[in-house]
Amino acid sequence: MNPRYRPLAATTLIFIVAYGLCIAQYPAMWSTRVLGNFLTDNAFLGIAAVGATFVIISGGIDLSVGAVVGLAGVLSAVLITTLGLHPLAAFAIVLVVAASFGAGMGAAIHFLRVPPFIVTLAGMFMARGVASILTQDSIPIDHEFYRTISGLYYRLPGGGRLSAIGLLMLLVFLVGGLIAHKTRFGSYVYAIGGNQTSAALMGVPVGLTTIGIYALGSFLGGLAGIVYSLYTSSGYPLAAVGMELDAIAAVVIGGTLLTGGYGFIFGTLIGVMLQGLVQTYIVFDGTLSSWWTKIAIGLLLFMFILLQKLVFSAQGRRPRMQKAPA
Amino acid sequence: MKRLHLSDIARPQLLALACILLLNWLVFPGFFTVTWQDGRLFGSLIDVINRGAPVAILAVGMTAIIATRGVDLSVGAVMAVAGAVAATAAVVGQPLIVTLLGALLVGLACGLWNGALVAFLGMQPFVATLVLMVAGRGLAQLITEGSIVTFSDPALIFVGTGSLLGLPMPAVIALVLMIAAHLVMRRTAMGLFVEAIGTNRSAASYTGLRTRTVILTLYAFGGLCAALAGVIAAADIRGADANNAGLWLELDAILAVVIGGTSLMGGRFSIPMSVLGAVIIQAMNTGILVSGLPPEFNLIVKASVIILILVMQSDRIGELVSRRFARLKLRGKS
Q: DSSP per residue over B35-61, as a string?
């Protein structure tokens, strides 16, 4: 087997084993209902995590995702409810705003040559601040279109529901995978993550690509915010607080290297599903409190980072792991 | 260069603080009024120092970490854990010394964990501390069993709300900690070690410096500071809230350090300036509160400040400015 796929295989194997253990304890977890809910409940996280994967493969980090999700939800709610726009028009505006917000962050990272985490930290404050100024309360969205979309699902055999937003997440993963592996932009992202200087010397337009990466990340954050507003039928400025960490955790658990240059979009899907599995297990157990989720995810994160270190130091690629922190 | 120059006093940070205080005074004329009551000082100015203390304490620990090109994202979560430990110990009737020691030891353990991951496993600091940032709040909730643990131990409450020589206790603690840390950094070789690691870690270890031990110590100290801040935050509200204690404070602490002029590229740091940065942040917070603007503006103001500082710290802008200055036959920027 190509050693390139080893971390991905390890993640997939761990997911299958973990799911198997869960089923052994609670046979009811083996149903299309649970699987369908996995997709629906984690749709917004998955979509945002695809964006985070691109950013992390390029060697950067985006801490503003959760705030962009909150802002996108509030903006859609305000545009639809207060201004009376059609949801589709509102979505278009939200996505354009989100993408240009990300492009601005990308430009700041490239032109000011500052670490991405501090720029996106400022972006996080900015997005949450704007969202809180638009409204401080949760705005309910009551629109024909929202009801239609929320009620839309494909009935799976066994009574499970593949909802529209769950399907959208799978679609985003598919398109994300195609962009990463089949387009020039995708190769640029990997090249920059591997070594920015060599990439620039090879003729990769580093500036434009960096701007594009962060624009894509925030665009998907905006899309995730729209999905979140569909999921909850409301917009709330404090929605998805701390979600950026879940997204980063999903990416890392999915086998993407935080040092950049290596990773798979598909791995992130497994990472999201593994987090969903932890949550579902805790719900099934009933006696464990929800705070175990955080501890379990923290442990998983630790395990996978350790695993990455072991796999990559075994391949004699230690120097790359010790690259200066972003 | 031991003489005090005008340029030493006219640091941009001090100017910024003066501007913010002046603005606060304009929107709220009673801002500088300080009264003596019940054996302690009262007033908006004292409030700024008091409320800024937890972030100042975090910033003391964070400064040296950032100076080695690291970062500790877990301080907020460690605050919650330490607060939970202190509150739980106080509830079962432990004396103050046990409560404090317990909380500080837990903070030290968290810091050692972070430090071990960074120094010995060679993880990126940002990633290594992310683990505890995610899991820490879960641990805190495990300790408090999901509820907000309230306590009424007067000794512990004194740590958060008492006063010494008229000054609020948190401010006194922050001040003592700052002076102690500054002396250790500047009167021993420690500061030099930190700067050497921040400038070039491999070069530092080739010169025979035990970089791993130094880094481990710095993260352990960061954890200790976070625990202290956590105890103060818990004592201030007389309870430990695992969800909200120290929420976002890691970001405030990083911001304070950056405002204080410590370079994110490592190698240059100043602990007192970081504390000044924390005071500036709190002066902005208080200013927004007293001016009657919605507190949500705080986030936007903070974001703008970060962007402004990034632009000023940026090498490329610096090059442009110094080139312009050189052309004008003036001395380059400080």
A: EEETTEEEEHHHHHHHHHHHHHHHHHH
Mean pLDDT of chain A: 85
Write the CB contacts of B24 (distance below 8 Å, at least 6 apart in sequence).
B31, B44, B283, B286, B287, B290, B291
Whether residue A299 contacts residue B146, with contact meaning beta carbons closer than 8 Å, is answered with no
Q: What is the mean pLDDT of residues A70-83?
A: 90
In A136-273 the beta strands, taken as DSSP E runs, fall at: 139-140, 153-155, 161-163, 234-235
Confidence of residue B324 (pLDDT cuts 50, 70, 90): low
Which residues neighbour B7 within 8 Å (Cβ) at sequence distance 6 or greater? B334
Please tell me the distance from the alpha carbon of residue B112 to that of residue B102, in angstroms, as a whole number. Answer: 15
- Domains of chain B plus CATH, in order, are 40-293 (1.10.3470)
* Token representation of residue A93: 């505006």
| Domains of chain A in sequence order | 3-9+31-311 (1.10.3470)
Q: Cβ contacts (< 8 Å) between B146 and chain A: which residues?
A: 289, 291
| Average pLDDT value over all residues in chain B | 82
From B130, B146, B311, residue closest to A245, measured CB to CB: B130
Is B310 within 8 Å of A118 when comparing Cβ atoms? yes
CA triple A276-B244-A273, angle to 5 deg = 10
C-alpha A225: how far from chain center: 11
Tell me, yes or no, if B1 comes closer than 8 A to chain A by beta carbon.
Answer: no
Measured CA to CA in angstroms, residue B250 lies from B54, B57, B85, B207, B226 at distances of: 11, 11, 20, 33, 9
- A320–chain B Cβ distance below 8 A for any pair: no
* Distance of alpha carbon B48 from alpha carbon B31, whole angstroms: 10
**Per-residue pLDDT, B6:** 52
Query: For residue B333, what is the DSSP state?
Result: P
Regarding beta strands B34-37 and B40-43, do their DSSP bridges make them parallel or antiparallel, or are they unpaired?
antiparallel
CB contact, 8 Å: B276 with chain A? no
Please report the ipTM that was assigned to this predicted complex: 0.72
Which A residues in the span 66-105 are in contact with B, Cβ-Cβ below 8 Å? none
Burial (0-12, 13-18, 19+ Cβ within 10 Å), A217: buried
Contact A118 B251 (CB under 8 A): no
pTM of the model: 0.81
Q: Is B104 on the interface with A (CB under 8 A)?
A: no
